[in-house]
Amino acid sequence: MAEIDPRTDTHIRSMAGPTRPAYGPPTQITVDAQTLSAHEGEPLVDVINRAQMELPQVCYHPQLGPIQTCDTCIVEVGGQLVRACGTKVTPGMTVRTAVQAAQLARENAFDRILANHLLYCTVCDNNNGNCTVHNTTKLMAVEHQNRPYQPKPYAVDATNPFYQYDPDQCILCGRCVEACQNLQVNETLSINWESEHPRVQWDGGKAINESSCVSCGHCVSVCPCNALMEKSMVHEAGYFTGIPLPMFQSAVALVKDIEPSMGYGPILNISEIESAGREGYIKQTKTVCTYCGVGCSFEVWTKDRHILKIEPTHGPANGVSTCVKGKFGWDYVNSGKRLTSPLIREGNTYREASWDEALSLIARKMTEIKARDGADALAFIASSKTSNEECFLMQKLARAVVGTNNVDNCSRYCQSPATVGLFRTVGYGGDTGSIRDLELAGLVIGIGTNTAESHPVLATRVKRAHKLNGQRLIVADLREHEMASRADLFIRPKPGTDFVWLNAVAKYILDNGLESRDFLARWVNGLDEFRETLAPYNLDYAEQVSGISQEQLKQIAHEIVQADGTCIMWAMGVTQQCGGSETSTAISNLLLVTGNYMRPGAGSYPLRGHSNVQGASDMGAVPTFVAGYQNVQDEDVQRRHLNEWGTPLPRNKGLDNHEMVDAIHEGTLKFMYLMGEEMAIVDSNANYVEEAFNKLEFFVVQDVLFTHTAGFADVVLPASPSLEKDGTFTNTERRIQRLYQALEPLDGSKPDWQIIQEIANRLGAGWNYAHPSEVMDEVARLTPLFAGVSYERLEGFRSLQWPVHADGTDTPLLFLDGFPFPDGKARLYPAQWIAPLESATEEFDLHLNNGRMLEHFHEGIMTFESPGIKSKVPNGFIEVSPELAEERGIKTGSTVRLVSRHGAVKMPVLVTARVQGRQLYMPMNVPNAVDAVNRLTGSHTDQTTHTPAYKDVAVRMEVLSLDGENPLPRTNHRWGHPTPQRGVEVERKWQRPDYVFPGASLTMLEGASLNARADQLSGADD
């Protein structure tokens, strides 16, 4: 029997959550006289669960693996009582679950659990049908506790703004610790097993809000009871849970008082009736996270418009994982600042208008400007925060109704250079594989990506593999962020020089015969020409230009060559440079030279920053392509769209969003329709962009909140966020997922797809889409890349990774059968180094870097509406190195003005060793647009894609005041002190003097007698 490799096995690759150790060969075992298929080395409990045999298990969670703290899954194997979760399958093993010794042991173990838990399910907010303690009580038909409940000498910790911990309800199963230590790998939680009264601790005993907790919610999601619970659930979820505290406590006491006489059976029956009643007013709706490009999916629990909680379970990209934004950052949906009526500008103010008036005005202006100045005087910008279907309709409005290719989306600001680099070399502009491949790789290299803050859940998989599975990690970045501090090798190249050291590594590999010769010969074109272009990039030159030592460059080369699969992930630190496309190309070239395509656990991973930035481009919201990256000039594409739309595609060159701003200044672009983007402060050189918006003849902004950009509009249209509509998002893995409407659109607002359709129809389009699924059906008809995509195939938590063939077969791992070029071969592309333009000068002597923070999303428009998130990071700041702070005589809390060639901002200082020397760092998120970092960035761009060179900024610093408050509150996790350990460390529990393995007191003779009696009673035939 062949071994099953999780890197190629379809079933294992499709599982939600983190990867598990590779299974051994298939085998068979006997459980209660049944022959079951199994895999050698897998947990016995998995085999029993697959067979749907009843077996209690409180601490075991399939995404966490064996924890072995609860002892409720004890079975007999070979005459010995063992934990089913901690026992690995061996060929031919015989297992008995129903023997009396095992049953008594399980009852004994669960009785100890109930002694730690105040069971009052009838009035518990967590009485939702998914409480493991409740369900196990029912499964085991427990009527009475032998051990009385023992309260613990600790108060409830409600200091965190999002969740609370009740030690009196905690059963010490350790799931939360395992999740924090080995799944999220934030390493905050532990259990003080040696204490007289063990409890879960944060940073060894700190209050939650004073610890290193990042509020990711992993602990809350895996808690098997109500010990850890979302504050949004408390006194909200049940019929009886909202009663005043004294009455609530009396109700709990009543439940406990009647237990000795009635038993738990009637109490649990009442609680299940109450739980069933909740189904009438609590909705559980599957959705996809609206923030970064990881594509976490989960159920949102709502009561009317109140969001009770986010419940991650088995999302294909995330499993039970979330980050603070996805788990808790939904306050903006019910913000009092939501737009609820169209607004029309009158002078310097706005007045509310009816939808009919606003849409009629827009249609009239579009018609007038097109008639006078031509279709190319109008431009359209789709949103990475809206659905695939809405982005498709926006570009269809531009092309099929107006007749222009002037359409773009915010991928122009981040990952367009990565797409170009991959198009040049391997033919598809998306991640090679899945997040699972990043976890399976022998080596992960991160370049210009602050992954733990920008893509937190994806980072957990890398951190887990690095901690538990021996994966190597190399990080190249200007700042020592979390991934850099964890790395086996952290290098700090000089700004904008990644291209140089990458090519030097490629040259060293080729010069020393370390390349993957068979792979290159079979699958790659252009090696000789590529080798010639590398001639200048010797190690000495690379060291001089990049500042990376020759020894480190050699180490990187050898690590790549020796690794069992290398994945390179990169983000805005690479792409937001004048040479972003060239550096992205160099990354892919290096992977080709070393044979790191066409297999699992390898390849290129340009991490997408927004929930649907991949999808926005996939759907054709770019000036040169329609959906599926089909060139508008291609005759087959023209014919297909003519047949579907009844109108030819415009062939003229369209403007991207950078060119649109220039065209407004030049007077050739008169009208802009912008959907769901804060372009005024997200585009570079914000002052220049604002001047352009003031010059527009007519400007339409469509959004959920009144953004800074909306303040320049002539008409503002109130849109609906993701929770208020159906649709699909495409994540960084090319994974298409459905989101379902959880809430009705707020009165006065409408889903974006409906608004676009109404505008199109006022222009004579005659569209009649009744549901976004009909839009996706049209996409599938027009687009070979999505030929097999349908809402039926995306039902529930199912997903598809493009390309999707007509029969519904998708492609989790690209290039297994070759590359999408005519000869099936990839291409080594001769890229060129483009040096930074804004090097430091005597006047502008400091380099300014910028990027995201964990707590906020991009500029913070949505996350500043969350009081809890805002309390963690209330404002922006500038990170200054200790050496620069000493030189300038400033400290944390000092206020400085940064002045660039393009503008100035005023900010408080945070002195930190995360930055070094004369480099500064400023987060993108600020509550006041006046302070936005793009007041400082210029208009210079990547030469191929026009992606702004946001990371190429030189500034000077002016000290305004020395004393001030720390801009990062002491309740921020960055001030905490994690306590890393190898999980829950259950061995420490087993060493406690009061711990006895359940059933251990039974002699083998007694055990045999009990087993025989149990067999008699059950009629089991072994």
What does this structure look like?
This protein has 1022 residues and is α/β, with parallel strands linked by helices. Helices cover 31% and strands 16% of the residues. The strands form 10 sheets. A 7-stranded mixed β-sheet has the order 14-13-27-26-25-15-16, with helices on one face. A hairpin with a 3-residue loop joins strand 34 and strand 35. Helix 11 crosses helix 30, helix 12 runs parallel beside helix 23 and helix 17 runs parallel beside helix 23. The longest helix has 19 residues. The N terminus and C terminus are likely disordered.
Provide the structure class.
alpha/beta
Distance between the termini: 27 Å
The helix count comes to 34
Q: What is the strand content?
A: 15-25%
Helix content: 25-40%
* Shape by Cα distribution: globular
Mean pLDDT comes to: 93
Quaternary structure of the protein: single chain
**Uncertain parts:** 1-8, 1002-1022
Radius of gyration, whole Å? 30 Å
Number of strands: 37
Strand order of the largest sheet: 14-13-27-26-25-15-16
How does the major sheet shape up? 7 strands, mixed
